[in-house]
């Protein structure tokens, strides 16, 4: 299902196996904007770890890199390596804390091993969430952040990123262009069941 002017493709699936299949199909049916080598970068995240994308994409010979840093190793070299892999990847896969149904806005809190650039630099951004992460609108988000016991226990992180569809601009001759300052496509995989 594609939402109108946002150019956001919503892919409902029953479970994590369906999510893995949807992402593998997307990788098979798309090509990198630059170059010919396909590569994927993903967050280190419990939901994304369940998808086992490394194995699922091995048959297509597409490497999957995780934004995970190893303790007791050179932090600067690791960050440089992750940045380069993000730049080289044509698909970035994240999860999200919430998705606001009213504006189709993804809400991502800052956390360790979850680089914001994964959602911003690759040509295609894929976000994977569970159905219970859908909220109605900003009012519900703010109420949840303020009053929910789990949210209060975690507290607010350094910042939150809100993403409403792919990058777009109409700077030149008022012609809408997607992907000028970020991803040209955004796909939202929603796991509706267990």
**CA radius of gyration:** 17 Å
User: What is the CATH T-level topology?
Assistant: Rossmann fold
Question: How many strands in all?
Answer: 13
Give the structural class: alpha/beta
CATH homologous superfamily, by name?
A: NagB/RpiA/CoA transferase-like
Q: How are the SSEs placed, and which strands pair?
A:
Layout: E1 2-3, E2 8-13, H1 16-29, E3 40-42, H2 46-51, H3 53-56, E4 64-66, H4 75-88, E5 91-95, E6 98-100, E7 105-109, H5 117-120, E8 124-130, E9 134-135, H6 138-147, H7 149-154, E10 160-163, E11 168-169, E12 177-178, E13 185-191
Parallel strand pairs: 2-13, 3-4, 3-5, 5-8, 6-9, 8-13
Antiparallel strand pairs: 1-2, 6-7, 7-10, 11-12
Please, could you describe this protein's structure?
- The structure is a single chain.
- The protein has 7 helices and 13 strands.
- By secondary structure, the chain is α/β, with parallel strands linked by helices.
- A hairpin with a 4-residue loop joins strand 6 (98-100) and strand 7 (105-109).
- The protein is globular and about 45 Å long.
- It starts with a strand and ends with a strand.
- The mean pLDDT is 87.
